[in-house]
Design brief:
With 125 residues, this protein is mainly alpha-helical. It has helices at 3-19, 26-35, 43-55, 79-103; strands at residues 24-25, 59-64, 72-77.
């Protein structure tokens, strides 16, 4: 299966999930996505997604000077981005459960609540 089409539909969600717990700069976010198993992700796609999420108000950014090269622009999730992440996570879980039911119609389905991220105390930035 060509995963590039799937990735296009969920890259916003994946990027928001990556910066949920730790801010990151462009290539760091690409590396973290690849380390998570999304090996097909392209640098340009992630940079475009970061710009779009920033322009849409889901991310904030700040610049950190670098000793060995150009300054790095870090991205951080903000409250609007956290809401977007929660909504898209719910949508993804519902979709994944529906697809699992289609692909494995005789398997017992689990309660989707186990897939929902646990709210983190004091997770606001």
């Amino acid at each position: 299966m060509d995963t590039t089409q799937l990735l296009k539909g969920v890259l916003d969600l994946a990027v928001l999930a990556v910066v949920r717990d730790e801010d990151g700069y462009g290539y760091d976010i690409v590396r973290r996505l690849r380390d998570a198993g999304i090996g097909d992700v392209g640098d340009a796609s992630v940079y475009g997604t970061l710009r779009r999420l920033y322009s849409g108000g889901a991310l904030s950014s700040y610049v950190v000077p670098s000793e060995g090269g150009p300054h790095r622009k870090y991205y951080a999730i903000n409250p609007q981005g956290r809401r977007m992440l929660e909504e898209q996570t719910d949508t993804w879980v519902q979709f994944a459960v529906a697809m699992s039911g289609l692909l494995h119609p005789h398997a017992k389905t689990q309660d989707t609540a186990i897939f929902r991220p646990r709210p983190e105390a004091g997770a606001q930035r």
